UniProtKB/TrEMBL annotation:
NCBIfam families: nadA, PRK09375.1-2, PRK09375.1-4. Keywords: 4Fe-4S, Iron, Iron-sulfur, Metal-binding, Pyridine nucleotide biosynthesis, Transferase. InterPro entries: NadA (IPR003473), NadA_sf (IPR036094). It is an enzyme of class 2 (transferase). Its EC number is 2.5.1.72. One of its GO terms (molecular function) is transferase activity. It comes from Nocardiopsis sediminis. It comes from the Bacteria. Signal peptide: none annotated. The gene is nadA. This is Quinolinate synthase.
């Protein structure tokens, strides 16, 4: 078996996985991996899923330690929901360009301009930002979250402009103000690329993942009619995996971060799954390497903490999100 991403030059992937599992048992740790992690990380994890599914798991697992293979805001969300657990992020520099588009000060200043507004935050935000908001949402429950707010209340929606535009369109509300943030990875899945790929593959289906904010620019293009609806399936992680298992299409184009392809290809070896944009790769997600995971388990690093006051305020927003969101199969 081929060596993995250099945990040690002499270690095979099988030996590495066995050592990771042994160390996890020794540390009473559960390993959670986001769908966009490297294949070897997904394969060695106890659970793989989207951020909402992993948040739910973080709140319910019995292990005393969570090793979160994802990006920083996801580990923070796990800590907010499970303050009594130790949460480790193998690479603390694994950030998120979308979360970086807004700060807690920005939210306070925006709210001051609209004092009666309800502030809705996409889950791709820091704990400090979540603490300044009223309710969090994912891509899949964003419209339901908006509908749960009285029609006459103004809404401040942050930080993703594409998801904001999408919920405005599907709810028909015009009293939503949208923060103009975007994810650099999915900005690359643009209308021209989508149209070109769909036109070049007339028999192919197109799956767009709605739950990770990573797919919101594609979601926006589908909703606005830039690509034909009949060939498009907007699916959660679980729905995407189920559809992959049962599809008879020769080819399916995937409009999201390329890490998702690993699970889809494992689910169905006869259909060809191709990325709409093969360069749609999140370098933050890929910072979690085999070597980093092994190091985190050996040394107990890097522990993610959220101060109690921030966590308490943020928890209200996150718990509302978890109540309204529907569980997805990925990881559950
Ligand atoms: S793909 Fe984009 S939204 Fe997702 S973690 Fe990476 S930078 Fe953030």
């Amino acid at each position: 078996m081929a060596p993995v991403t250099a945990p040690a030059d002499t270690m095979t992937r099988h030996e590495w996985a066995a050592e990771v599992r042994r160390l996890a048992r020794e540390r009473d740790a559960v390993i959670l991996a986001h769908n966009y992690q490297r294949p070897e990380i997904q394969d060695v994890a106890d659970h793989t899923g989207d951020s909402l599914a992993l948040s739910r798991l973080a709140a319910s697992v019995e292990a005393s330690t969570i090793v979160f293979c994802g990006v920083h805001f996801m580990a923070e969300t796990a800590k907010i929901l499970s303050p009594e657990k130790t949460v480790l992020l193998p690479e603390p520099e694994a950030g998120c360009s979308l979360a970086d588009t807004i700060t807690a000060d920005d939210v306070r200043a925006w709210r001051a301009e609209h004092p009666d507004a309800v502030v809705v935050a996409y889950v791709n935000t820091t704990a400090a930002v979540k603490a300044e908001t009223d309710i969090c949402c994912t891509s899949s429950n964003a419209a339901d979250v908006i509908r749960s707010i009285p029609e006459d209340r103004e809404i401040l929606f942050l930080p993703d402009q594409f998801l904001g535009a999408h919920v405005k369109r599907v709810t028909g509300r015009d009293n939503i103000h949208v923060w103009m943030g975007e994810c650099h990875v999915h900005a690359g899945i643009d209308g021209a690329t989508l149209r070109e790929r769909v036109a070049a593959e007339p028999g192919a289906e197109l799956y767009v993942h709605p739950e990770c904010g990573c797919a919101t620019s594609a979601l926006y293009l589908v909703g606005s009619g830039a690509v034909p609806q009949e060939r498009v399936k907007v699916l959660s992680t679980g729905g995407m995996l189920s559809a992959a298992e049962s599809t008879t299409a020769g080819k399916v184009l995937i409009a999201t971060e390329t890490g998702m392809l690993h699970q889809l290809r494992a689910a169905n070896s006869t259909t060809v799954f191709e990325p709409v944009n093969p360069r749609a790769e999140c370098h933050y997600m890929k910072m979690i390497t085999a070597e980093k995971l092994l190091g985190a388990l050996r040394a107990g690093t890097t522990e993610i903490t959220v101060d109690a006051a921030t966590a308490s305020k943020a928890r209200r927003s996150v718990e509302r999100m978890v109540e309204i969101g529907s569980p997805s199969r990925g990881g559950e």
